[in-house]
# Entry
Amino acid sequence: MSMNTLTIPAASIRPDDILCNATGAPCARVADVIGAEESCVWVSAYSLDGDVWFPVSFDVGEETTVMREELAVTGGTPVDFSAVCEGDRLSFITTENGYGGRGVYTRTGRVRRVTERTVLVDCDDSSRAMLRRADWNARGVQRETLATTGRPSRAPLQAAAITAGAATAVALAVVLSTSTDHPTPTPTTTPHFSRSSSGIEPYRPIPEPRTTSHTSRMRERKALTEREHIAFPSTSPATPHPISTPPADIRISFYRDCTGHAQQCIDAGALTMYAGRILAGHNYNGYQWLSRVPVNRTVHVIHGPLAGTYQVYGHLRIGRQGGAIPTFPGSPDLILQTCEGSGTGFSLLRRA
# Structure
């Protein structure tokens, strides 16, 4: 992967970014973002040789130079100009050939406006791009698809196993049919032997009568007429157990920004940000609650691009996993996603 040199706000530093010193030379790799306070941003870093760990602090609003790996967008599908709608997430190729330019690289963003000849995109790096119909194919435009958060299907593995077994059987049949070491065996008829025709009868043991230990059902049963013979459940528990009250708010302190390669991070078990405003996780990795956060519940995101306070206003469920990102009602600022059965569920939130 190629490395891009970027000047970004300290609050936008990600794990695996390489910090540069005042002269622009790489000096340390970021391990994790420890936390952000009102006056500074703290990150945990280690030297490039991996021998020394140390904390690094930045002032809020301070810009710093980092080197970041440019990841190819693998979560999108090619899209035609006529199929683009406002709100779609797109990735496209940008070329900067001037002095100090970055050459050919990929940008991502959300469609703001669509006309007959152009598409205006709000890019994730806070810039804007105008994509023209005339050079659409040259820009390699792809539409980002919905990440899958359910359990991976075993159907492809089963199909591959069946195909491999069939190929092995065919190969074995060819080897046996072409072998000249032994003549082809000729099937023979096995003579049928009947015990009745030979006068020999099979041995059949005669069962002896056994005494039964159960009570005969023929006689009249004794009815239960006395109250003490019947057990009644207690109307109240012997020891009262208080019902725990759910927390008044939810705090999300860590997630990974994996825009453009979200499926890899989700499959690794991480709570993952993609498409600019979606936090997604596999339901079997402990994130089954994401789509069921109650309405009016407050959610605090502590760090990163989505930092802020949000409130749930609704939910959405679709009957599929993967495919195009659906249109969310109410223009949510934050979306929590996980899979529900064979479909996908979402909690929709606005900034409080």
The domain at 3-69 is CATH 2.30.30.30 (SH3 type barrels.). The chain has a mean pLDDT of 76. Helices lie at 155-178, 195-198, 262-267. The chain has three helices and 20 strands.
